[in-house]
Write a structure and sequence with these properties.
This protein is an all-alpha fold. The chain has one domain. It has 9 helices and no strands. The longest helix has 29 residues. The protein starts with a helix and ends with a helix.
Length: about 200
């Protein structure tokens, strides 16, 4: 199966998610800068969610650039990822509106944790389809960042009971880990291309 429709659909869903997130930010009634102060937690939540969507979009693009084909399992794994990402506007909005209270901040972490797990399943589904010796399998290779992310998310979820700001900081650490695009895929594709030439 070709991968073009899956990539186009995913791009569209992610664009809608970002649009929904920005529409959740309500314009303040006052015309003074101080009127923006109550929106600061909502804006912080929006920034973190926007960065996360950007990270997933970027890595999704790299992952499917290395893929040459898809199957039904990959399509469902992709839908699974999009499901968890589609919940980010809700989780982010609830967290921001409640100034990083325990339950909303924990739920935001659970959503990020599940999106990370879904991305891992998607990557493994693609590697299984392409084979252990494929360029994709070699590019994905070491999953140290993935494992570290899961541990940090789990810690953030647990600590939300004590302090939402600590949890938020941990979620931001994971985003910083991934902010620089995963170069493994680009590097491996370039290496394989150079060997063929």
């Amino acid at each position: 199966m070709g991968k073009g429709r899956l990539e186009a659909f995913s791009d569209g869903v992610l664009a809608i998610i970002i649009t929904i997130m920005v529409l959740e930010m309500k314009v303040p009634l006052g015309d003074q800068l101080i009127s923006l102060k109550p929106l600061l937690p909502v804006f912080i939540s929006y920034i973190l969610s926007f960065i996360n969507i950007g990270i997933y979009w970027n890595n999704h693009h790299h992952l499917f650039h290395a893929a040459t084909k898809i199957n039904g399992k990959v399509m469902w794994a992709n839908i699974h990822l999009l499901f968890w990402l589609s919940l980010l506007p809700f989780a982010s909005g609830w967290m921001g509106e409640n100034h990083f209270a325990s339950w909303p901040t924990a739920l935001f972490g659970v959503d990020l944790f599940m999106a990370g797990l879904a991305y891992y399943i998607l990557a493994k589904s693609l590697v299984t389809l392409h084979g252990k010796n494929s360029t994709l399998a070699k590019a994905v290779g070491n999953d140290t960042k993935e494992k570290a992310s899961v541990i940090i998310y789990a810690l953030g979820i647990a600590l939300a009971c004590f302090n939402g700001w600590i949890s938020l900081s941990l979620y931001a650490v994971v985003a910083l880990l991934w902010l620089i695009p995963d170069r493994r895929i680009e590097r491996k594709i370039n290496e394989d291309h150079s060997q063929r030439v």
